[in-house]
Amino acid sequence: MGSRPYSLLLVLSVLFLVTLSNVAEGYNHLRPRDCQPRCTYRCSATSHKKPCMFFCLKCCAKCLCVPAGTYGNKQTCPCYNNWKTQEGRPKCP
Predict the structure, then answer these.
(1) Do 78 and 84 form a contact (C-beta atoms < 8 A)?
(2) Has this prediction a pTM greater than 0.85?
(3) To 10 degrees, the CA torsion angle through 56, 91, 69, 41?
(4) Virtual CA dihedral for 18, 29, 47, 51, nearest 10 degrees?
(5) Which 8-state DSSP code applies to residue 34?
(6) pLDDT 10s digits, 8-56
(7) In the chain, fewer beta carbons within 10 Å around the N or the C end?
(8) CA 75, 24, 10: angle at the middle one, nearest 5?
(9) From CA 91, how far away is CA 86, in angstroms rounded?
(10) Which helix (H) or strand (E) is 45 found in, with range?
(11) Which helix or strand (DSSP H or E) is residue 38 part of?
């Protein structure tokens, strides 16, 4: 009889963790209207703002994701990270 409260607590804890993981996973998935501010920040540190914005917006429209920060972190957005040019170089900034 004493194990019943622990079972309920365990089930509630698992449900809470599943909910938290879904929220964290969905953080990078954007709506198209969210691309402009994210790309503006992503390209803020470069001296080549115009091409950076062009490709960032193009990548965001396709992938609905922009990595955090002004450089790197592409592993958080696989589509953005894996899209390459014909020469095999990264397409997304």
Answers:
(1) no
(2) no
(3) -20
(4) 150
(5) G
(6) 777 767 766 655 444 444 445 678 889 999 999 999 999 999 999 999 9
(7) N
(8) 130
(9) 9
(10) none
(11) helix 35-42
